[in-house]
Structures are given as structure tokens and as C-alpha cells.
From TrEMBL:
Gene3D superfamilies: Intergrase catalytic core (1.10.443.10). One of its GO terms (biological process) is DNA recombination. This is Tyrosine-type recombinase/integrase. Keywords: DNA recombination.
Amino acid sequence: MLFAIVKFYKLVFDREINLYAYYPKRQKHKLPVYLSINEIHRMIESTDNLKHKTMISLLYGCGLRLAELLNLRLSDINSNKMTITIRESKGNKDRVVMLPEKLLPLLRDYYKAYKPKFWLLEGQQGGQYSAKSVQIVIKKTAATVGITSPVTPHKLRHSFATHLLENGTDIRFIQELLGHRSIETTEIYTHITDISKSKIKSPLDFI
């Protein structure tokens, strides 16, 4: 069809046109970059600052966006059900994620030390902790343990999703945990994981 239009313009008006210039270019989605489990472990264990350790553990352990971390309230933590409620995340939709067992004692120690009143992570003046401060903490902690590539809060979220997928977690469950509207957004992680086929069991092995 496009070729016919181009040919028509050439024959009738003696003009060459480039119709493809009128079509928007498809956006190229960059593949997520993630850290290894060993790198994450080194980051968490390298700091003695309870607040820094808590924020790194939350970002990675729950797959949070930076804004979601900063918006966490004390009331969002449910230690009985072992869940965390993420309110008004991207798309203004609430969701519930798991509270990792290793994170609960850390949160309790953090609470005893800092005694936050409303926001889980509070700044020196009692308001919300700043996004810039979190970014600096992540960057400095990564550099301290010898990670040379840029590390951001979102890279910890990418690492969370990738490691879950590598561990055999169903991709639709990962979609819910990340708060993705479309499964296609989550499926991008299937392009960067190296899931060993030797871990996949044939139905014959269950007979």
C-alpha cells in the first residue's frame, strides 16, 4: 500500500515522498540491569547504619520503587500477616507485598533506634526522608563494596524481579508484586535471566 502511494506521487507529481517519516518510531525498551545476589548481600551487610540497612533491604526485599519506599507509613507494616501495603503506587493503585522474614527483626531494631512517628523513614526534621538522600546512600554503599557500575534504587527493584524469576516464581505473581498493569512489562525480565533448563522438571519425573 505504501509503495503504491509513493509510486503514484512519483508518476503524477514527479515527486518522491518518504511516508515512513510520518510514522512514529517504535520506542526501544532497554533491558533492565540488575545486581547479583552476592552483590546485594555485600551491600546490606557492609553498613552498620540501621536506617541505611533498612532502606536497602526494603527496596530489594520487596521490589519497591523509590517513591513507594518514601511513602511507607508505620501502619502499612503488618507483622501478623507478614505483609506490607503499598499505597497509591504508580497508577494510583494500592497493592500488598510480602514482608520478608529476615526483614522483620531489622524493622523492629530500626523502630527502637529511631522511633519514627508516622512515616517509616523520616528525615531529621520528622518529615519524609528525601529521595536524593536515598540515592546517595545506595550509590555510596555500592561503591564501598566495590561495585563499579552505577547502582540506583530502581536497580535493586530490577534485581528483586530477576532473582524471583530465576528462582522459579510464576511471572504473574511477580507482576502483582511489582504492581505492573500489563504482563508485557514484567515479561521483559525473561529476556535477561539465565534460567537453567536443568532446573525444569519433565512431567515424566513425577510419575
